[in-house]
Amino acid sequence: MVTWRGAAATGRAGRRRPPGPDGRPPRVLILVENLAVPFDKRVWQEARTLRTAGYDVNVICPRSKEHPQTYETLDGVHIFRYASPFEAAGTAGYLLEYPMALAAQLRLALKVHRAGRIDVIQACNPPDLLYLVASPFRRLTGTRFIFDHHDASPELVVAKGHAGGSVLVRVVEMFERWTFAAATVSIATNESYRRIAIERGGMCPDDVFVVRSAPTVQRFDAARSDPALRRGKRHLVAYVGVMGVQEGIDYLLDAAKILVGRRGRDDVQFSLAGSGPDFPRLVARARALGLEENVTFLGRISDEDLASLLSTADVCVNPDEANEMNNISTMNKILEYMALGKAMVQFDLAEGRVSAGEASLYARPNDAESLADCIAELLDDPARRERMGEIGRSRFTGHLSWEHSVPALLGAYERALGRTAVPVAAHDGGD
Predict the structure, then answer these.
(1) How far apart are CA 168 and CA 58, in angstroms?
(2) pLDDT over threshold 80, residue 344
(3) All residues at 6 or more sequence positions from 7 whose CB lies less than 8 Å from its CB, including other chains
(4) Are the C-beta atoms of 336 and 240 separated by less than 8 Å?
(5) What pLDDT, on the 0 to 100 scale, is given for residue 275?
(6) Residues 313/389, Cβ–Cβ less than 8 Å
(7) What is the tens place of the pLDDT at every residue in 120-147?
(8) 41 phi and psi angles, rounded to 5 deg
(9) Looking at residue 301, what DSSP letter applies?
(10) Alpha carbon 286 to chain centroid distance?
(11) Is the bond into 215 cis (omega within 30 degrees of 0)?
(12) Do 30 and 59 contact (CB within 8 A), yes or no?
């Protein structure tokens, strides 16, 4: 992993950052295109951390059904939202969605600017186009630009079914290079993404900070199990996350069919929480497989209901498809499972192992039969589940919770503003 020395290294989540030379707190604008805030947990934690540290924090993001307000202040963070008419599902849709989003973000950024100079703009991808919104402020007022690298966009496009080396992939690679070139500092979610910033993005290693996505230690303190979630079954298997092509939920449905249909495990309830572009198709496929009595799609649920689901679960599953995108990405769901001390099953992917270590069993990549075997193995061994859950919880509290990323985030901002924080190599405590 990477730790930080200099001004931010002694910081705490509550440390107050000194005011700028004009006596005001440094002004931050965070740009998000694909999720509303505070629903985007990573961005919301970043915004609150910066606010607590003394920054004037503003966020621009799309509206959603859960967050329809065009403006509100939450925990001292100013949130500006714009109407997002649809969620694009293909290249033609993106050609409509992205220009509309960029125009709306620029309009709101100018509104934020009129209230006072913006010192730092942080852009959270995807897409790798938000540097265009920051560009006029960089050039005209000297605003610093931080790239918060959530997704490796070229790998993501390939994972969605486009051929490597295709025109679309080459265009995405070009925008990624331009985004890194514009960045004063880059924030990576893990060491794999840090390598991309340095090797593919050409960034100086001192300008790349690892800020992992994870819950806080206290987030699930009030979690309580709910036996009703088992729906009369002995065992509960839970999944939480986005429902798209690359999330591999088809493998989970196939594994459920193997366990319930072929092996007669009618004692297992599968509960899947979350939404996404593939949600309707997956619901229909579960029905076609005859799994209505054993598979429940909960849709997008509240934090309280999420905590209850995970507390009740015997085993949690991360069926993300084995591909280059998922191999280098850290999945939030894994850290949520570990925060609640749950044993899990996932395909054998590099960053999945970095996070979970011995808290997980690892199925053969993209093999539903192996996934079913691992689930059954844990369901039938409660003592092993408990040991693995304890390992996961210890790893989470020891070095993976959000609290451990706070100094890195503050260090990235100190660096962007010309302070002295410099990332240096250190062991991350992983296996």
Answers:
(1) 32
(2) yes
(3) 411, 414, 419, 420, 421
(4) yes
(5) 92
(6) no
(7) 999 999 999 999 999 999 999 999 999 9
(8) -65, -40
(9) -
(10) 26
(11) no
(12) yes
CATH 3.40.50.2000, the chain: domain bounds? 2-213+405-425, 227-399
Q: Which residues contact 274 (CB under 8 A, 6 or more apart)?
A: 239, 240, 241, 242, 243, 298, 299, 300
* 168-200: burial string, b at 16+ Cβ within 10 Å, e else: bbeebbebbebbbebbbbbbbbbbbbbebbbee
Q: What is the DSSP string of 374-394?
A: HHHHHHT-HHHHHHHHHHHHH
Enclosing H/E stretch for 9: none
Distance CA 155, CA 311 (A): 33
Number of residues that make up the chain: 431
Q: What is the pTM of this model?
A: 0.89
The CATH classification of domain 2-213+405-425, taken from the options 3.40.50.2300, 3.40.50.2000, 1.20.1250.20, 3.30.9.10: 3.40.50.2000
Between CA 83 and CA 400 the distance in angstroms is 35
Separation of alpha carbons 9 and 5, rounded Å: 5
Rounded Cα distance, 323 and 247, in Å: 10
What are the Cα distances from residue 253, in Å, to 99, 228, 294, 368, 377?
37, 22, 10, 8, 17
Span 45-84, pLDDT tens digits? 999 999 999 999 999 999 998 899 999 999 999 999 999 8
Closest by CA to 130, choosing from 146, 115, 110, 117, is: 146
The contacts of residue 142 (CB under 8 Å, 6+ apart) are: none
227-399 belongs to CATH 3.40.50.880: no
| Beta-sheet pairing, 2-5 with 422-425 | antiparallel
Neighbours of 50 (CB within 10 A): 24
Whether pLDDT at 189 is above 80? yes
* Helix 368-379 with 249-257: angle, nearest 10 deg: 60
Say if strands 422-425 and 235-240 run parallel, antiparallel, or are unpaired.
unpaired
- CA dist 210 and 227 (Å) reads 39
CB–CB of 420/7 below 8 Å? yes
In this structure, which amino acid lies at residue 22? D
Query: Three-state SS string across 194-230, please?
Result: HHHHHHHCCCCHHHEEECCCCCCCCCCCCCCCCHHHH
pLDDT tens profile 376-385: 999 999 999 9
